[in-house]
What does this fold into?
Amino acid sequence: MTVALAKFRVIVGALTLLVMALGAQPVSAQQPTSVNPQASAVKEEQLFQELNRISGRCTLPDQKACTIEQPAGRDWRHFHEVTLRWIGGLVIIGILAVLLVFYLWRGMVRIESGRSGRTIVRFNAFERFVHWMTATCFIILALSGLNITFGRPLLLPLIGADTFTAWSQWAKYAHNYLSFPFTIGVFLIFLIWIAGNIPNRVDLEWLKRGGGIVGHDHPPAYRFNAGQKMIYWIVVLGGGAVAVTGYMLMFPFYGTDIASMQAAQISHAVVAVLFIAAMIGHIYIGTVGMEGAFEAMGSGAVDLNWAREHHNLWLEEESVRTGSNETRRQPAATPAE
Ligand code: HEM
It folds into this structure.
């Protein structure tokens, strides 16, 4: 009995020592992690690294404002500040360089048979009005849009903060308001010229023969050749795309979330710079690239020999339609026609 009592006392003593030893551990080790400021900071840092996101609760009515940083936002910012500037710079400077080299090599495409001194109406007053309205809006939209992409790094250091702010504000108004006549113009262009812009077999032949621009050939063409048809479809589809994505940006979060707003901005900007490059090519051909072309949209009438060399099938159609015999009266047609 005495031995059993002694064993019991040893066990109780050992347990008491164990409890005391546990009780003697550092204070921090006993505290729950939620109240330890250092431990929670570590968790926040880990969380940020894992999710790449800083968001919380806020009292602003627009709850999207409570997300301060998120991965897609950072990717978008990188696109806008870096990638887009590279794409835009390369595409626009690239097309200008290609056209300069092409011009130095080929020079202006001349009316080979010389001017006849007689003209034929190519575009009526309404067509020219629609063209110039859309073109004017396009140029202002392009310059005011490029200001959003390149203004800060290129223009701000040159003109100073005050002038840049005033100009950017006006540019933004112009971009917003001219979008409406531009959209109407693209829609009218779609309607008035669709009939002449459906691709056909003549276009393949025209393309195979380099359109008469690369060499000195005059492949047959109706009212619009394959090159002009490409421009038409770039304007209709590109114009449609910048209009849809542009209105998504102008009226944010109407049926869109942050992801689709970012997609709209990326598509708008990329289509816009490609569109600008295509229009620089179009302006080149319409001015210094080809003799007699500007008159078509200037006065609306082109020289008969120009029409014969570049749009012989259209000239034939017009001769039949108007009952004149213009195509026969001038025997300067090249063998290709
Ligand atoms: C219906 C037609 C259009 C609408 C509604 C529209 C609308 C917009 C809007 C709302 C923005 C964002 C502006 C901002 O961030 O404050 C924008 C940006 C831009 N737009 Fe347009 N736009 C149109 C046509 C065009 C055209 C025709 C071009 C080019 C020729 C163009 C080029 C640009 C460019 C380069 C940007 C800047 C992209 C960036 O750096 O974020 N836009 N547009």
